[in-house]
Amino acid sequence: MKALENKVAIVTGAARGIGEGIAMKLAEQGAHIAFTYVSEGSAEKVTALQEKLTGFGVKAKAYRSNAGDFGECESFVNDVMKEFGQVDICVNNAGISKDNLLLRMTPESWDDVMQINLKSIFNMTKQVIRPMMKAKSGSIINMSSVIGLMGNAGQSSYAASKAGIIGFSKSVAKELGSRNIRCNVIAPGFVETDMTAYLKEGEQGDKYKAGIPLGRFGTAEDIANVTLFLASDLSAYVTGQVISVDGGLYM
Ligand code: NAD
What we know:
Layout: E1 8-11, H1 17-28, E2 32-37, H2 43-54, E3 60-64, H3 70-84, E4 89-92, H4 107-135, E5 138-143, H5 146-150, H6 156-176, E6 181-188, H7 202-210, H8 220-231, E7 242-245
Parallel strand pairs: 1-2, 1-4, 2-3, 4-5, 5-6, 6-7
Helix pairs in contact: 1-2, 1-8, 3-4, 4-6
């Protein structure tokens, strides 16, 4: 039996990068997948992912939904309940960065980062806890970042949003533990995706790599493996935790 057989998982922002890796891993382990995207450019890319997921013998459906918009999250989860009948796992992965030194950071870019990285977690969690409370079970996994733990010059908005996710998640874990709903956080280090493409080139890339004890950038699969652990019953007694998946960068 696969680890997530008969479970339904939501993954936000899954059309590429870490979210795509997570959707693939959870589907491989038997979970039906409802995933969101916003503007992935080509409809073919989203359809291709949907086909790859169904290739694991599970149901998969893509929904265009902005995680930063409360109303869109509400309709998205209602649609998932109609289509799939349950939500067992919610991976809040969608996120952006708009990096700049504080001197140059605009209030608009600060608001965008907060809206998409932090308010999205409130938006989605508020919706999924209803079916989870009824089912007396659920696992919520929120994607923070090593930057939320360490801070970083030029990333004050990103760091604040990712640190906020940690406080939120610990509170939810305390609030809903008695209902058997777990809420944990993953703090990835530098993972090779579109978001970090600019970091890994040349001297700068070598400098970042030199600071990582395991000596390499992470992959989407590294993050997906820990997500699988947190989504499955293997972590049945784990809640309110922040798990760093960063090659030892932060310790
Ligand atoms: P990415 O830019 O490759 O992918 C992000 C995904 O989120 C995209 O599919 C994008 O369309 C989607 N998205 C953006 N805004 C959205 C919105 N409003 N609603 C729904 N979806 C939206 O980035 P990634 O590297 O795969 O990052 C995934 C998550 O992991 C993010 O939360 C990011 O902050 C976090 N993270 C990434 C790294 C890294 O090194 N790549 C490190 C730490 C944390």
